[in-house]
Design goal:
The chain has 271 residues and is of the alpha/beta class. The chain contains seven helices and seven strands.
């Protein structure tokens, strides 16, 4: 794509501002909120059973459930990259309890406002949503126990910076759990399609590159926990206008919904 990184972020932000406006003003299930909705990607999100009822009313623009099987404990600090309307913030707040803390970072004002409203409605006083980009997080170094993200890193035009930021903000021994989209050998027509980028497809990179990018920052135990075909990412999820003229059949076997985990080395400082 010929756009600058700033232009990509501005376009994606505008796209998701429109999406949250539609989701909050037109009754619909989470899967139709956006084509990167949780059900569209064939995710394992349906297995989660421990979230609040209110979370079911919050629009999800994700492709999985990064907190599923994540061993988040009470009292820990969780950071959500691209926190959107707060779908995963609520689940994280429930897990960490009143002694923990949850930080969301998003670049879209409409999403930030929605997440703050939803957290307040849920009664969580330990949720903070900050404005920023995931390539330059407004979060202190070595300050969080967990980094989570749901179908957001694929939208970044500078993924190596995101991976480096994950490493920076995690405490020594801290862990991450990321649900995202990966893709292999996409046709040129898809790679050049702006809507396909906004819909989490053409910005996705191969799984091996994703894992290598995380490992390259010094993060360890990096692995793919789950992988399912994302064949329903457009067309089949009930939003017929979302395919942007794409040949969805041409994406078969090329686009995946994955959950990737790992940790920051538990550095021991000599005494």
């Amino acid at each position: 794509m010929s756009e600058t990184s700033t232009q990509v972020r501005e376009r994606v932000s505008a796209s998701y501002a429109r999406a949250i406006s539609v989701a909050e003003n037109k009754p619909q299930d989470k899967a139709t909120a956006a084509c990167c909705g949780s059900d569209c990607c064939g995710s394992d999100a349906d297995e989660a059973q421990t979230v609040t009822v209110l979370r079911d009313e919050v629009p999800s623009f994700g492709c999985g459930d990064p907190l599923l099987f994540a061993q988040v404990k009470e009292g820990e600090v969780v950071l959500d990259l691209g926190s959107g309307a707060g779908y995963d913030l609520l689940a994280a707040a429930e897990k960490v309890g009143p002694t923990g803390y949850v930080i969301g970072v998003d670049m879209t004002d409409a999403m930030i406002e929605s997440a703050r409203r939803n957290a307040a409605s849920a009664g969580f006083k330990n949720v903070e949503v900050r404005k920023g980009i995931i390539e330059n997080l407004p979060v202190a170094t070595d300050s969080v126990d967990w980094v989570i993200s749901n179908c957001v890193v694929n939208l970044s035009p500078e993924k190596d910076r995101v991976f480096a930021e994950i490493q920076r903000v995690l405490k020594p021994g801290g862990r991450f759990s990321i649900s995202d989209i990966t893709a292999d050998d996409l046709p040129a027509s898809v790679l050049s399609n702006e809507e396909a980028y906004d819909r989490c497809i053409s910005g996705a990179i191969p799984e091996e590159d994703y894992l290598a990018g995380l490992r390259g920052t010094g993060l360890e135990s990096v692995r793919t926990e789950s992988r399912v075909p994302a064949h329903d990412i457009a067309g089949d999820c009930g939003c017929e206008s979302c395919d942007g003229g794409l040949d969805v059949a041409a994406l078969e076997g090329k686009v995946w919904s994955v959950r990737v985990t790992g940790s920051k080395p538990n550095t021991v400082i000599p005494g």
